[in-house]
Sequence to fold (301 residues):
Amino acid sequence: MVAGLKGIRLAVVGGDDRELYLIPELQKLGAYIVGVGFEKAPPIPGLTLVESLIDAVSQVDMLLFPMFGTDERGLVKAKYGSSPIYLNKEVLQAIPTKVPLLIGWARPALKSATDMLGIRIIETNNLPELAILNSIPSAEGAIQMAMEATPITIHGSKSFVIGLGRTGWTLARMLMGIGAHVSGVARKNADLARATEMGLRPIHFSDLEEYIGQAEIVFNTAPALVLDRVMLEKMSRDAVIIDLASIPGGTDFEYAQMLGIKALLAPGLPGMVAPKTAGKILAEVYPQLILRQLSTVNPMV
Ligand code: NAP
Fold:
């Protein structure tokens, strides 16, 4: 069921092309949208532009920040903004406590600041429905990167997928669909059993050292240093690593470079390779989330 957002005022703060697709979808559902950081964007009918974030916070029921959150100084990435936007102490203090803040990924400092000020913060990066849907553009983007980085076809390649979670499963399935010989690396027996059922070669993480030398392409989705010096030394120098795990990735990139192994960190693939789909995914998930949050702070919504 599509949730109606009539009468709800939202501030969309910064972001990239995803927001250009998200905003009209939220407007179609009846939301009134204030945009911060869209001065250089193609015009979006009905969008009210506000010059500074601090002016927006008191005008809306909820604040929507981008998936990648802020940097360590509180700078919000705004592809179409004409001046920097900071989510800093001054802005946080101006946010009414009944106005929740939706953000992809919140730094620990931001979380403790909002905790102290009594502001509700909702991190969306880890919502299962969003992570699973986002795994589609992520997997496509990773395969695109692998195609560009290797002199071989994916078809027939010995591809390893490390981490069989929401992204890993989608990636493994797509790779199989293209005809790769896929090894699925996991540490849970249930995941290895499922890998067997799907036709992947299951490899327990503790046995990876023994097998990694066979890999032509390694896709890492485990958010930990799994491709460390020991593992890299066992790899073929012709192998290519596409590391999807969140920054800093799961690869010792410096050491890989020293060994002559091509290793690429691939952050933010959905917004990069398929902003329209990624924006529509946000538009599919956010309305229910917004209504749920607002009904908690204001039962009349
Ligand atoms: P997920 O569902 O939690 O899956 C992560 C997988 O990694 C799980 O199978 C987990 O195994 C495994 N893992 C975690 N720590 C490990 C370790 N120390 N050693 C071995 N395996 C380990 O997460 P996800 O949604 O697939 O996302 C995976 C990563 O990709 C995250 O960092 C996420 O932020 C990132 N991501 C990046 C993009 C992009 O555009 N680059 C897009 C989507 C997601 P267990 O179940 O045994 O813990």
The two ends are 17 Å apart (CA to CA). The pocket of NAP is lined by residues 131, 134, 138, 163-168, 186-188, 205, 221-224, 226, 244-246, 266-270 (CB under 6 Å).
